[in-house]
Every structure is written in structure tokens, then in C-alpha cells.
Design a protein that fits this description.
alpha/beta, Rossmann fold
């Protein structure tokens, strides 16, 4: 497995390295830790750019030390480019299976810039992307992880479950499969459906959610970990329903497919996945199916 870690050198990058070093990974996994320095800000000071690159490279090697101490092969690199454009390209160039990046950058402006960087990487990377956030205070991997897997029964959600079932996890890890019915949203009079038709649509949607949750639980049954499933209450959007479920269950990680059942989500990264990844309180991995198996 090839994993690209995006570091901006700030304290928000430390949880990414620590998380990567503490988790179990498949045998043969290797890490590339990259800091992308935007040369635009050094246009009028090229000598400062070279100095910044050298200091960043030194800091990056030190920052990646926990991975090396854990016995994983590690390569560090400083790239001069726009982070939003460079990270998906670098990941594609090394054949990365997963990109790990932080949820915040340096200061207020950095938080805004990284928000757009994370969004760009989520939309344009050809591989899976995890937005890593600090763990809950006192959490220890010896007590296992709590992993929430939202599903809508789509092929992308099923692929995310398959990826999860194939990965190693800490002992005592718990998985929770959740599905939310998508009911038709009606504003004012809606003459196109009779009341009995709306009743049938509602029943059908809930049945689909029940089936999707049960299917996910069955797919993960071979992992040997504790698995539960639930149909969660619908809200104004599936993303908000997932975020509410996460607030109630307090997972360490949410893993979900990159696209949903709706056709529009296949053209642009599903708004559900993007919203959850950008606004959840915990880490979120958006799993993308490789082009060869789409």
C-alpha cells in the first residue's frame, strides 16, 4: 500500500503523522511525506524561497521520524507548487492508494486556504483521501477504534466496506453501519404525487435503508470485530443525518464511498461525502474506486 501524507509543517500536521504511525497497515506499506510550498509568495524574494525550501526539508525529515521509528519505509520531499494542484498530481505520480491530510493549516488564513486545498484534493484525487483530525482526549489504540460506515446501498458504499474489511485494525475495534432513508422533500402543495404514492415512496426508502445497513453488516462479518447497524433518522440532507449520527456515537473515523446512488454525484464528488469530510468532528476517509474497477 502506498500512502501520501500532506504536511504543511504546522502543528495540525502532527496528528497525521502520529495517526499513521500508530495504526496497523498491510505488510509492504510505504509512506511519502510531502510539503508543498507555494512559490507565488516568494516571487520577489527567490533567495528566501531556496532558504525556506531547505529549512522545510529539514523539518519534514524530523516530523516524519515517528513513521521511521515504527519501521515503515519513508520518503520525504518538498515540492514547489500550489498545494491544491500538486497533491493530486503527486499522488497519481507515485500510484498512491491513500492521501492523508490535515483539517487545518497555519492561522486563520491558513484554515481558509487548507479548507479549499482539502476540498480540491477530495474532488480531484484519483485515490482515496482521509481528512485527519486530532483524536479524542485519552483515546488509545489499545482500546480499539470506533469506525462509522454510512451506506446508501450504492456500489461505492459497498466498495468502501470491502476496503475496510480487507485492512488490519487494532484489537477491540468496533464498526457501526448506518443508513438513512431519503424521503421526498415537499414544499407547499405538490400535485404530482397522490398521498398513497408518497406513503409508498416513504416505505420503500426506509426498506432500502434497512436492507443497505443489513448488507453492510453481513459484508463486514468476516472481520471478527464487533459490528452493529442502525437506520438513522433522516434530516434535511443525508450528510447532516450522518454528522448527527457521528455526534451521537463519537467515532474515531468515518469511512464512506466517494459517490452516492444519484447520477449527479457521479459527475462531481458526492456532496454528502464532501460535506461529511469537511465538517465532521473526527477523521473522515472518502474511498474512491480505482478506474480499472469502476
Amino acid at each position: 500500500m502506498k500512502i501520501l501524507i500532506a504536511s504543511d509543517g504546522s502543528s495540525s500536521s502532527e496528528p497525521i503523522i502520529q495517526e499513521a504511525a500508530s495504526r496497523p497497515w498491510p505488510a509492504g506499506t510505504g509512506f511519502t511525506v510531502v510539503t508543498v510550498v507555494d512559490p507565488f509568495f516568494f516571487t520577489r524574494a527567490p533567495l528566501l524561497l531556496q532558504e525556506a525550501k531547505e529549512k522545510t526539508a529539514q523539518a519534514l525529515r524530523e516530523q516524519a521520524k515517528p513513521l521511521d521509528d515504527a519501521g515503515w519505509p519513508v520518503h520525504t520531499e518538498v515540492v514547489l507548487d500550489s498545494p491544491r494542484h500538486a497533491l493530486p498530481r503527486i499522488a497519481s505520480g507515485i500510484g498512491a492508494d491513500l492521501i492523508l491530510l490535515g483539517s487545518h493549516g497555519r492561522g486563520t488564513v491558513g484554515r481558509l486556504l487548507l479548507g479549499s486545498t482539502a476540498q480540491a484534493v477530495l474532488r480531484h484525487a484519483e485515490c482515496s483521501v482521509e481528512v485527519v483530525r486530532r483524536s479524542r482526549p485519552g483515546r488509545s489504540l489499545t482500546a480499539g477504534m470506533r469506525v462509522l460506515l454510512p451506506t446508501d446501498g450504492s456500489e461505492h458504499a459497498e466498495y468502501a466496506q470491502q476496503v475496510v474489511s480487507a485492512l488490519p485494525w487494532p484489537p477491540q475495534t468496533e464498526f457501526r453501519i448506518v443508513a438513512s432513508p431519503e424521503y421526498p422533500v415537499l414544499i407547499g402543495e405538490y400535485p404530482y404525487y397522490a398521498p398513497e404514492q408518497l406513503t409508498e415512496l416513504t416505505r420503500s426508502s426506509r426498506d432500502h435503508a434497512v436492507q443497505s445497513a443489513a448488507s453492510g453488516e453481513k459484508l463486514l462479518a468476516n472481520t471478527g470485530f464487533h459490528i452493529s447497524q442502525a437506520v438513522i433518522e433522516p434530516m434535511d440532507s443525508p450528510a447532516h443525518a450522518i454528522l448527527a449520527a457521528a455526534d451521537g456515537w463519537l467515532p474515531d473515523l468515518i469511512v464512506m464511498g466517494s459517490h452516492g446512488r444519484r447520477g449527479f454525484d457521479r459527475l462531481i464528488l458526492g456532496s454528502v461525502s464532501e460535506t461529511v469530510a469537511l465538517y465532521a468532528a473526527c477523521s473522515v476517509e472518502v474511498v474512491r474506486k480505482p478506474p480499472a474497477i469502476l
